[in-house]
């Protein structure tokens, strides 16, 4: 459907259909969302319902069971917006199927792709991406994990930390130093020498672990792409999926505003509704305005990423920063509007407050992204 038929700034029908699918799935999780979002391991009911929905087929290309010929950033973004509004656990499970397998889909050997990607599409196999290390976060070039070729195998040694889906994943795409470059290696979780530990947990509980690799041997065709070219695959993954974080943040902000509005409309104070008292109306209007602005930039960036991920990476980065910072402000205002009900443990707004905060750090912290954008701006101009 062309833009004239849909309206210049409206989503085409295939994306609104996906929004509706995702919203239906997300609402169906309300009976288990609170439990799942406090879990540090994969919730089996969330996994079963997500698998049954078929939405994880968006995470891989059609050749291996995906819905579209290529992974579509806008599709991933609009779905994450709906899922994150109801459950961080659900949103993370969906998103990581793409993030953990994208390099493999783009540059893996046919044998390995044919083995794993159909299982990723169906959620039979959980995927993970291993980048960070105990002493390495944003500065990935400082990583110490190594990959050495020996005969027809590649041997990987190292310690990855804060790995989403760690401990529950069936496959890890691991970035390692190989010679003078960095390679991405596909490592099945049941390979001898792979073990996981869970020394950390974040403020919004997450499926998270350290992954220790001790003389792990995999066939040479498990190297994804060319030797020493792993960073280009990591960059391609970020270019495709970073904007989807913005989608999730918009969804969380929308959910927080809905809770605050319901509370403000339903609570009487000083002889009238809270929604008409003092600064509350301004807070509500500011939240609404900020969300709509963030959503507009997010959809624009996601559409650009769907056309050409690398060319639109600056927009994806801007959207990620804008939406996650907006989410933080909106959720904080919502808590303030709700007063003591906003700081009560076990409530939806309390869960959103904790889940919103990490979005400003993972997949590029606000400060790191701004530094990168500033360098591009100074070098290239507008």
UniProtKB/TrEMBL annotation:
It comes from Gordonia hydrophobica. Residues 128-201 form the Acyl-CoA oxidase/dehydrogenase middle domain. Residues 228-377 form the Acyl-CoA dehydrogenase/oxidase C-terminal domain. This is Acyl-CoA dehydrogenase family protein. Its cofactor is FAD. Belongs to the acyl-CoA dehydrogenase family. The keyword Oxidoreductase applies. Keywords: FAD, Flavoprotein, Oxidoreductase. Residues 15-122 form the Acyl-CoA dehydrogenase/oxidase N-terminal domain. CDD domains: ACAD. Gene3D superfamilies: Acyl-CoA dehydrogenase/oxidase, N-terminal domain, Butyryl-CoA Dehydrogenase, subunit A, domain 2, Butyryl-CoA Dehydrogenase, subunit A, domain 3. PANTHER family: MEDIUM-CHAIN SPECIFIC ACYL-COA DEHYDROGENASE, MITOCHONDRIAL, MEDIUM-CHAIN SPECIFIC ACYL-COA DEHYDROGENASE, MITOCHONDRIAL-RELATED. Pfam families: Acyl-CoA_dh_1 (PF00441), Acyl-CoA_dh_M (PF02770), Acyl-CoA_dh_N (PF02771). The lineage of its organism: Bacteria, Bacillati, Actinomycetota, Actinomycetes, Mycobacteriales.
């Amino acid at each position: 459907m062309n833009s004239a038929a849909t309206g210049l700034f409206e989503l085409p029908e295939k994306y609104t259909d996906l929004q509706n699918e995702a919203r239906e799935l997300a609402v169906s999780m309300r009976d288990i969302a609170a439990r799942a979002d406090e879990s540090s391991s994969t919730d089996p009911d969330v996994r079963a319902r997500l698998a049954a929905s078929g939405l994880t087929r968006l995470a891989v290309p059609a050749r291996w069971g995906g819905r579209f010929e290529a992974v579509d950033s806008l599709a991933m973004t609009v779905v994450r917006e709906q899922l994150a509004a109801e459950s961080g656990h659900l949103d993370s499970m969906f998103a990581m199927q793409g993030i953990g397998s994208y390099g493999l889909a783009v540059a893996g050997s046919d044998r390995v792709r044919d083995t794993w990607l159909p299982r990723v599409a169906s959620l039979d196999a959980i995927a993970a991406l291993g980048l960070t290390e105990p002493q390495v976060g944003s500065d990935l070039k400082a990583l110490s994990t190594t990959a050495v070729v020996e005969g027809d195998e590649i041997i990987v040694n190292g310690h990855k930390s804060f790995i989403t889906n760690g401990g529950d994943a069936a496959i890890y795409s691991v970035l390692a130093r190989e010679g003078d470059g960095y390679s991405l290696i596909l490592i099945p979780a049941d390979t001898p020498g792979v073990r996981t530990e869970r020394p950390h947990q974040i403020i919004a509980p997450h499926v998270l672990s350290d992954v220790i690799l001790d003389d792990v041997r995999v066939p040479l065709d498990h190297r994804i792409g060319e030797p020493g070219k792993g960073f280009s695959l990591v960059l391609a993954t970020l270019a495709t999926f970073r904007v989807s974080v913005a989608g999730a943040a918009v969804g969380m902000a929308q959910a927080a505003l809905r809770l605050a509005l319901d509370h403000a409309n339903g609570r009487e104070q000083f002889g009238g509704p809270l929604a008409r008292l003092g600064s509350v109306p301004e807070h509500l209007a500011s939240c609404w305005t900020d969300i709509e602005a963030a959503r507009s930039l997010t959809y624009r960036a996601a559409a650009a990423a769907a056309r050409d991920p690398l060319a639109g990476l600056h927009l994806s980065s801007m959207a990620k920063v804008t939406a996650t910072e907006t989410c933080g402000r909106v959720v904080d205002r919502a808590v303030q509007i709700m007063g003591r009900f906003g700081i009560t443990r076990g409530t939806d707004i309390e869960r959103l407050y904790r889940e919103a905060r990490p979005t400003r750090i993972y997949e590029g912290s606000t400060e790191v992204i701004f530094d990168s954008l500033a360098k591009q701006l100074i070098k290239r101009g507008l």
